[in-house]
Automatic annotation (TrEMBL):
The Protein kinase domain, residue ranges: 55-313
Keyword tags: ATP-binding, Kinase, Lipoprotein, Magnesium, Metal-binding, Myristate, Nucleotide-binding, SH2 domain, Transferase, Tyrosine-protein kinase
Protein's organism: Gouania willdenowi
Catalysis: reaction(s): L-tyrosyl-[protein] + ATP = O-phospho-L-tyrosyl-[protein] + ADP + H(+)
Pfam families tied to this protein: PK_Tyr_Ser-Thr
Principal EC category: transferase
Protein name: non-specific protein-tyrosine kinase
EC number, UniProt record: 2.7.10.2
An MF annotation (GO) of this entry: ATP binding
Length: 327
């Protein structure tokens, strides 16, 4: 099937792009399904909850607000990433409900959730392992020494691809940021931690019975309507995507670098926006400002963002300057 498909693509230079892309995404889904069924049958006989004794934690990869992440080995054979959640950071039932949905979300640009251990604390979330860690660290380490402008556009397009899949599924990420995009070999980027923010918030709201998310709430990535009315939609994810574009173009700089969190909360809903980063082409900055439209319905869809990034990427590198002049 795959060789036929490749042949078709090679011959099909003139096929409508929408057709080629839908074939491509069908193939990617297919590959993920194969991976998933291998994982299910070899490792947990199709069971969703697995015995934590089958997981060996090998080395700590990092730590986040809610726990630590390890490289792990499942049944002594398969490399995985294991996210261990701090005790009490979320309700096991809430999490399991969300995890059922997350497990069904399969796409080449989304981190695949494989299994969970929720019978006792700490809760384990087992996902695919990404060799190069978070996009934020990847960008900060590189600072542009090896990553070119077209690599930056390609990474942004991959995130837009994962997000346009979520958009199609009517699923909201709620915590899109470079720290939640993971990088594999050859600059492959996949969106991670979708849905987790909701579970954490539900738990926190239960505890506090208020919409006060505490000091760790990622205000610099958050759309004004979320800050004001707690209104999460795919359009608030589009806002965060604009901030992520800023992170990509600045090699992981903190958004609103000269402002405090308090100033961001005060001034962004009043219309304050970041200015164009150094060396950032006008068309990329233009895309960011569209994502930061105060009226959420006027922000572009992820599908549109994906097409525009891909179209730009397909252009000859030499025409970048010309394209800049149009904006
Ligand atoms: N699937 C994974 N593969 C490789 N590294 C990962 C994976 N998931 C998380 N990490 C690493 O662990 C770190 C912490 O992740 P996380 O707990 O999601 O915290 P945060 O999103 O706040 O950085 C990430 O920055 C990344 O370096
Ligand atoms: Mg994360």
């Amino acid at each position: 099937m795959v060789s036929n498909f490749r042949e078709l693509l090679a011959r099909g230079a003139n096929l409508p792009k929408v057709f080629v892309l839908s074939l491509l995404s069908a193939l990617q889904l297919h590959n993920n399904e194969i991976m998933d069924s291998i994982f299910d049958s070899r490792l947990n006989n199709g069971r969703w909850e697995i015995d934590r004794s089958t997981i060996k934690l090998l080395r700590k990869l990092g730590a986040g607000q809610f726990g630590e992440v390890f490289e792990g080995l499942w049944n002594g054979t398969t490399s995985v990433a294991v996210k261990t959640l701090k005790n009490g950071s979320m309700d096991a039932e809430d999490f399991l409900r969300e995890a059922q949905i997350m497990k069904r979300l399969r796409h080449a640009k989304l981190i695949q959730l494989y299994a969970v251990c929720t019978m006792e604390e700490p809760i384990y979330i087992i996902t695919e392992l990404m060799k190069n860690g978070s996009l934020l660290e990847y960008l900060q380490k590189d600072k542009g020494s090896t990553l070119s402008f077209s690599d930056q556009i390609e990474m942004a397009a991959q995130v837009a691809s994962g997000m346009s899949f979520l958009e199609l599924q009517n699923y909201i990420h709620r915590d899109l940021a470079a720290r939640n995009v993971l990088v594999g070999e050859n600059n492959i980027c996949k969106v991670a931690d979708f849905g987790l923010a909701r579970v954490f918030m539900v738990s926190r709201t239960k505890q506090r019975t208020s919409l006060n998310y505490g000091t760790k709430f990622p205000v610099r990535w958050t759309a004004p309507e979320v800050i004001r009315y707690n209104k999460f939609t795919i359009k608030s994810d589009v806002w965060s995507f604009g901030i992520l574009l800023y992170e990509i173009m600045t090699f992981g700089q903190m958004p609103y670098p000269t402002m405090t969190n308090y100033q961001v909360i005060q001034q962004v809903p009043e219309g304050h926006r970041m200015s164009c980063p150094l060396k950032c082409p006008k068309f990329m900055y233009h895309m960011m400002t569209e994502c930061w439209n105060g009226k959420e319905q006027e922000r572009p869809t992820f599908e549109t963002l994906l097409w525009r990034l891909e179209d730009y990427f397909e252009q000859d590198v030499s025409s970048y300057d010309d394209a800049n002049n149009f904006h």
